[in-house]
């Protein structure tokens, strides 16, 4: 019976403790930072808009078609996003590829400028340099289906 009372007191204390910590105000002078949330949205494009721009690229469409073909239509292109800074400019980093049951296979890494959605860059796979998408010489390797 004593064990039940002690367990009950610990549970109640835990609940009150969680509520107490959750009700504490943020310390002044320490801003809450989320790398994908922008305070002034008037000059920025949203993450969703950046993802839409990347997925509308012919390169992404070819990759999506390739993934659908090799997976017998069961899967499509997958992507995930992050924040990045290039030359002191803020970008969204969007990785496109194939999401299998064991891992995510990145095919391309693209960057969309938060201030200018038309400024899209890509990591050149051979050199590793980040170049404008217009300068990227696509080898069209995802046009062919392996046998």
From TrEMBL:
Domain of life: Bacteria
Name of this protein: Uncharacterized protein
Species in which this protein is naturally found: Capnocytophaga sputigena
Lineage: Bacteria, Pseudomonadati, Bacteroidota, Flavobacteriia, Flavobacteriales
């Amino acid at each position: 019976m004593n064990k039940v009372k002690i367990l009950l007191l610990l549970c109640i204390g835990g609940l009150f403790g969680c509520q107490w910590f959750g009700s504490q105000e943020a310390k002044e002078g320490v801003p809450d930072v989320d790398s994908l949330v922008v305070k002034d949205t008037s000059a920025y494009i949203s993450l969703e808009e950046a993802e839409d721009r990347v997925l509308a690229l012919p390169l992404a469409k070819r990759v999506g078609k390739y993934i659908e073909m090799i997976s017998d239509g069961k899967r499509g292109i997958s992507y995930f996003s992050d924040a990045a800074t290039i030359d002191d400019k803020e970008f969204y980093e969007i990785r496109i590829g194939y999401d299998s049951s064991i891992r995510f296979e990145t095919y391309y890494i693209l960057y969309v400028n938060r201030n200018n959605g038309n400024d899209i860059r890509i990591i050149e796979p051979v050199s590793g340099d980040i170049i404008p998408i217009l300068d990227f010489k696509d080898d069209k390797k995802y046009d062919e289906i392996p046998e």
